[in-house]
Design brief:
Length: about 250
C-alpha cells in the first residue's frame, strides 16, 4: 500500500527522521511506536503532505507522492487524525465530519451555491454517511453542537469519525486514545478492531501498549528518527534495542 524509502526530515541541522524505510502492507494494522520525540508525528506529516521530507521517497499504491500538497494526497484516499486536535471549532460536529468527505464532493462550493435537486440529493446522502460515522462513535446526539464546546474525549472521537467517514485506503492515526479515560479508550479500541476486521489498512501511532499489542499485525519502532526494529508484536517486545530505547528515556 505504502512504501517509505530513505525518508529524512531535518529541522535546521537536527534530523527528526533519518533515512526511514519500511512498507505498510494492505489490510493490516502497522503500529508505529517509539519514545517521545522519536519522529512519529513528523513521519505522518511527511506521508500526508503536511510536511515535506528533506530526502527520500514516499510511494502510495505504486505512485510517488513525495512533496505533493496535502489536499491532493487526501484525495488519493489517505486520511489521518492529528495528535493535537485539528477540528474547525465554530462549525458543527456534523460539518466537521462532512469535511472528511471531500473526495466525494462533500465540501464543493459549487454544490452549496447551485443547490440543484440532484446535488441536494447527494448532500443528503453525504449527511447520512456523516451521521452514521458519528453514530459509530456514539456522537450522533451532539451532531449539531459547535465542535468547540465538546469535551476533549468527544473531540478525539470526532477526529476519528472525520478520518474514517470516507473509507480511506490508508488511515493514519496519531495517538487516537491519548488523554482518553478507560471507558473511552475501550470504545475507540473496539472501533479500531472493527476497522481492522473490515480489512482497513491502518498506521497506528500509539503509546498505549495494550492497544498496540492487541491490534497490530506488525510493529515499527522509531528512536531518534531512526527505524530500529520491525517485526511482530512479540518479536519487537523482546528486542533488546527496543527495550533500551524505552528504558533509556
Ligand atoms: P513524536 O511524534 O515521535 O513524539 P515528533 O515527530 O513530534 O516526535 O518530533 C520529532 C523531533 O522533531 C522532535 O525533536 C521535535 O522537537 C522535532 N520537531 C518536530 N516538528 C518540528 C518543527 N516544526 N520544527 C522544529 N523541530 C520539530
Ligand atoms: Mg507525536
Amino acid at each position: 500500500m505504502l512504501h517509505l524509502d530513505g525518508v529524512s526530515r531535518h529541522f535546521g541541522g537536527l534530523p527528526a527522521l533519518d533515512r526511514v524505510s519500511f512498507a505498510i502492507p494492505p489490510g493490516q494494522v502497522t503500529a508505529l511506536i517509539g519514545p517521545n520525540g522519536a519522529g512519529k508525528s513528523t513521519l505522518i506529516n511527511c506521508i500526508t503532505g503536511v510536511d515535506t521530507p528533506t530526502a527520500g521517497t514516499v510511494v502510495f499504491q505504486g505512485r510517488p507522492i513525495t512533496g505533493l500538497p496535502a489536499h491532493r494526497i487526501s484525495r488519493l484516499g489517505i486520511a489521518r487524525t492529528f495528535q493535537n486536535l485539528r477540528l474547525f471549532p465554530r462549525i458543527s460536529v456534523l460539518e466537521n465530519v462532512l469535511c472528511g468527505l471531500t473526495r466525494e464532493g462533500g465540501q464543493s462550493m459549487l454544490m452549496a451555491m447551485l443547490r440543484l435537486p440532484y446535488l441536494r440529493h447527494r448532500e443528503r446522502l453525504l449527511k447520512l454517511r456523516a451521521m452514521e460515522a458519528l453514530d459509530r462513535f456514539h456522537l450522533s446526539d451532539k451532531a449539531s453542537w459547535p465542535a468547540a464546546i465538546l469535551a476533549y474525549g468527544d473531540k478525539k472521537r470526532v477526529e476519528l469519525a472525520r478520518a474514517t467517514v470516507g473509507n480511506p485506503h490508508l488511515l493514519l492515526l496519531d495517538e487516537p486514545v491519548a488523554g482518553l479515560n478507560g471507558e473511552e479508550t475501550a470504545a475507540v479500541g473496539e472501533q479500531l478492531h472493527r476497522l481492522r476486521a473490515a480489512g482497513h489498512t491502518i498506521l497506528l501511532v500509539e503509546h498505549d501498549m495494550d492497544l498496540v499489542m492487541r491490534l497490530a499485525d506488525r510493529v515499527v519502532v522509531l528512536d531518534s528518527g531512526r527505524c530500529i526494529a520491525v517485526g511482530t508484536p512479540d518479536e519487537v517486545r523482546s528486542n533488546p534495542l527496543v527495550l533500551e530505547a524505552y528504558l533509556g528515556q
